[in-house]
Amino acid sequence: MSSNNDAASYESKKRVEHTIEELFVIYKAPIYRFVFRYCQDEQLCLDLVQDTFVKFHKYQAYFDEKKSNIKTYLFRIAYQLMINRLKKRSRMKKILPFLYVNSQQQNLSYEDKFTIQAAIQQLPDKQRAVILLTYYHDLTQKDISGILEIPIGTVKSRLDASLKKLKALLEGNK
Amino acid sequence: MSNKEIPNEIQNKLDEFHVEVPELPMKSSKLERLPNWIYGPARDPLEILGISGNSIGRLVFYPLAFVLLLFFTPIFFI
Fold first, then answer.
1. Nearest residue on chain A to B39, judged by CA atoms?
2. Per-residue CA distances from A43 to A47, A121, A127 (Å)
3. CB contacts, 8 Å: B27 with chain A
4. What pTM was computed for the model?
5. ipTM for the assembly
6. Which of A34, A58, A77, B46 has a C-alpha 20 to 30 A away from that of B72?
7. What are the TM regions of this chain, as residue ranges (chain B) (predicted)?
8. How far is it, in rounded angstroms, from Cα A157 to Cα B2?
9. How many beta-carbon pairs below 8 A join chains A and B?
10. What is the domain partition of chain A in residue ranges?
């Protein structure tokens, strides 16, 4: 009986791990692209993608298919991890400023300031996430509100504001 | 608002932002991440002293000033 339980548990574990591996293959690239476009730090993004799946593995039991889909769930985990990591980094930067290089924006040349990468980086954090998820990941406003944990109305207003700001930045009218 | 409602000029600009996804394993231990942290870009510690690549004068002066200060400090305690 015990060996049957062990076998069942092993099978279940194997199935779950297989599923996570499949999910990793499918979603690693979209998650990496999202976090990279948001923070533009390669090493941080690599760690974040791995941490997302480690956290998913840990909290998989809390995932409810009826409430959200797997893509939204993984993006929400990645977004929360990224925000926490960036906050931690910002606190550390205040305490130990000599350990951190100057922000990318200060080192940009005149021409580089009008590239899309720089424009996205200059958007306020809350607006940046909305436009990235809308345009590059083709997510609905309902999904975005689930990922960012904000009302749909706020998603709409932030998207509108981000487009106006982006247009102004790209035209050089700050 | 969907993608189609985003103005074409902004869509064209957004399309310019390509991201290459590097090969990445599913998990990496903290020990494997440590070298990335150690070798990550850091601020130049000599920046505060205004020492750049070709300012040899300052590079020589600051240690010399430090050594002299260290040498003459005991005089004030006599």
1. A43
2. 6, 17, 23
3. 50, 53-54
4. 0.74
5. 0.71
6. B46
7. 59-77
8. 13
9. 77
10. 2-93, 96-172
